[in-house]
């Protein structure tokens, strides 16, 4: 089982969800209003009213086959609009 963490601008949430659902993910968690600091910028809720400052964090648990289906399309969105994605091992309790 893999865990996929995606952090990106909330503006791209619909595009990311479309990629996840077309790949057949069994489910996902969306956390809006994610804030913090990246290597070049600080993301705060101060610009949220304009839709430019808020980030979303999406977590997906799925198998390698689905990660491979997601990889190219998610990478394309994140490289164009910004954001990060990490895959790690996940073990159910």
From TrEMBL:
InterPro entries: N-reg_PII (IPR002187), N-reg_PII-like_a/b (IPR011322), N-reg_PII/ATP_PRibTrfase_C (IPR015867). The lineage of its organism: Bacteria, Bacillati, Cyanobacteriota, Cyanophyceae, Synechococcales. Gene3D superfamilies: 3.30.70.120. One of its GO terms (biological process) is regulation of nitrogen utilization. One of its GO terms (molecular function) is enzyme regulator activity. It comes from Prochlorococcus marinus (strain SARG / CCMP1375 / SS120). It comes from the Bacteria. SUPFAM superfamilies: GlnB-like. This is Nitrogen regulatory protein P-II.
